Amino acid sequence: MDQLSHLLEGFGGAFTPMNLLWVVVGAMLGTAVGVLPGLGSAMAVALLLPVTFSLDPTGAFIMFAGVYYGGLFGDSTTGILLNTPGNSSAIATTFEGHRMAKAGRAPQALATSAIGAFIGGIIATTLVVFFAPHLADLAGLFGPAEYFALAVFAFAATATVVADSVIKGSISLVIGLSLALIGIDGSSGASRFTLDLPPLFDGVSIVVITVGLLALGEVLFVASRIHRDPPAPRVAFTGRPWLSRGDVKLAWPAWLRGAGFGVPFGVIPVGGSEVPTFLSYATEKRLDKRRKKRMFGKGAIQGVAGPEAAGNATAGSAMGALLALGLPTSATAAIMLAAFQQYGMQPGPLLFERNSELVWTLLASLFIGMIVLLIINLPFAPMWAKLLLVPRHYLYAGITVFCGLGIYATSASAFDLMLLLGIGLLGFMMRRYGLPLAPVLIAVILGPLAETELRRALAVSEGDVTVLFDSGIAVTLYTLLAGAIVLTAVNRVRTARRRRAAQRELVA
Amino acid sequence: MTTTTEKPVPAPPGADRPSFWKGRSEFVVVAVLLALAVFLTHGTLTMTVPPTAASPGPQFFPWIITGLAYVLAAVLTWQIIRNPSPPPAPPGTEQDPEQDLDQDLDPGREPAADGTPGAADRAPGATRATAAEPAYRTHTDWRSVGIIVGTFLLFTVALEPVGWLLSAALLFFGVAYALDGKRPVFDVSLSLAVSAVVQLAFSAGLGLNLPSGILGGVL
């Protein structure tokens, strides 16, 4: 029970008045950013990165812990009340959540999602505490070929399974991989695609890419539809967010099942929590069909509980993968990785030895952060929803100013602002034509890893490609991938056929 | 994209009468992808490789991506020619809930592909939404987008010489105006207030220096 004593020490470190203040501030800011439409936890971390610069590393990471989960607690609020999910991880929650809100059960939906997020997060973080050190041992089994296989797995999975069109997903992937190429090549020192501009020698920062694609791109997209789309109807929010015993009875198995889906996905880099939230949603729906009184379509509480627990469980175990393996499995984790590096720390197997105190304090503050979040989200959800009453044009004007601020404060260069605008336009174009954004981020995050490991593997084998398929782990990953792709293809053909049949019926 | 014209930018050729280009504005994506591919080709060819570089050199991976880019551009072209998008179909963004709802109950998303009867129910709603669209000449409100892009450019250029206070206020005002801000006087004061609060919070509270610019002596 080595971990327990470490964790207790961590709590000791976290329970100072100053650190508690940072958790609360982080949780508040994270929830606020998360509640805003279009901005999720990745944005919360990216925009608040400069804010943490003036803190010591421990304080900074404690605040990140609050921001990280805060963004996740907040994003489903918008989805439930306005039918506009704050983040892709909240889409699955939105379906039934908004229906519950329309049926006058908005407080219950918000409570279910807050408790679900709490349960998912607690389960995943507990598992991280006990297994992260073992996960770090696992990293020793991974050589270049295995890491490359893992990256290929992540690329293909995000481009095919997560995206709704394989071609569009792959285009996003290529865009991301190209962005990742810019800069000085680490292993040879060659300058690549920098146009001889010194600011590009270090590559394009992940923060610029995230803020540009997700926030500025969203502002431009909203602007492009300003006179086109009718504004989203707002749902009145009345009543207290208490769950009846019947609600809890329906929700708790869904919470646990959701967490079960979420935990493994945090460790696999497939673009964050989209896949597990949808898996959980589909499962709950299927289970609902067996019941006498079907609730799906009318605002089923399980449809909120499952995905929400899955989303936060993914976020929790993603933190474990980041700390123990140094492997960022989502955009949020990648920005956290950048933050670690800014403080001169390298997440990975050695982190638990070198910065043990900080890691355990961080893990302890994840628990504290979640409790704080439950407190500020459960009774005060109506207050957060008031944020949505800010007129839309001021909201987006503020977001734009914070994009500019966030980027300028991290880099102090006008060049990065230009880059931000360019990437914002790219994000706008991608939204306009339905190109998914998640593959870009995954490609930017894992592209350099994939390239380095591929070249390393081929250099050792002197150009022999078979070395890539030489290990059990790599072959297993490729097999899993092939299986998933075949399954998706079959499913897609089947639904397409069914849809055509349905359309024919409709016409007839 | 950076034009800040008064009226909506003229629609792409043939927006009035159905032509080959109708519903095929997605060729923009092909163009961007091709431009990217050409840029990568040029960059990879002209790359100066240090003589010390090990065998799969710095050009190895870029070639793979370049190849992929050409192939995908070709495939997408073929796809657009075969099925042009139904005129301004709401773009499938992660932030567009209706669309995502459709996707969920529709094909695409693998996890939900359990044959929901909802797919057929929803279809008429979706077509109605698109049928209401053609009242506008372009899918995109280029005026709003143009104003925001223009303001952001101005902000970028002005930030260092003019200072945070004024340029951020300009940015806030520009975006609010583009998104239908109707009260110019109030908006200007709000913009100044927002940028002042940010500057104060960051320089006084967090010790981060934002450029003070021409107002440096006054503040």
Characteristic terms for this protein:
heterodimer; A: 508 residues; mainly alpha; two-stranded antiparallel sheet; 2 strands; B: 219 residues; 7 helices; 56% helix; 0% strand; flat
Give the biggest beta sheet of chain B: none
Low-pLDDT runs of chain B? 1-16, 87-134
Helix content bin of chain B: 55-70%
- Beta percentage of chain A is under 5%
Q: How many domains make up the coordinates of chain B?
A: 3
Number of helices of chain A: 19
Tell how many strands the DSSP assignment of chain B holds: 0
* Shape assignment of chain A: globular
Calculate the terminal CA-CA distance of chain A, rounded to whole Å: 68 Å
The helix-and-strand class of chain A reads mainly alpha
For the CA atoms, what is the radius of gyration of chain A?
A: 22 Å
Q: What is the topology, as strand order, of the major beta sheet of chain A?
A: 1-2
C-alpha-based Rg of chain B, rounded? 24 Å
How many helices of chain B? The count is 7
Measured by DSSP, the beta-strand proportion of chain B falls in under 5%
Shape, principal axes of CA atoms of chain B: flat
Domain DUF112 (chain A): 20-441
Organism (chain A): Streptomyces harbinensis
Transmembrane segments (chain A): 20-49, 109-132, 138-159, 166-184, 204-224, 321-340, 360-381, 393-421, 471-490
Keywords (chain A): Membrane, Transmembrane, Transmembrane helix
Describe the structure.
The complex is a heterodimer of chains A (508) and B (219). By secondary structure, chain A is mainly α. Chain A has one domain. Chain A is built from 19 helices and 2 strands. Chain A has a two-stranded antiparallel sheet with strand order 1-2. The longest helix of chain A is centred in the first third of the chain and has 49 residues. Chain A is globular, with a radius of gyration of 22 Å. Chain B is mostly helical and 219 residues long. Chain B has 3 domains: 59 residues; 42 residues, no CATH class; 74 residues, no CATH class. Chain B is built from 7 helices and no strands. Chain B is flat, with a radius of gyration of 24 Å. The N terminus of chain B is likely disordered. Chains A and B meet through helix 5, helix 7, strand 2, helix 8 and helix 10 of A and helix 1, helix 2, helix 3, helix 4 and helix 5 of B.
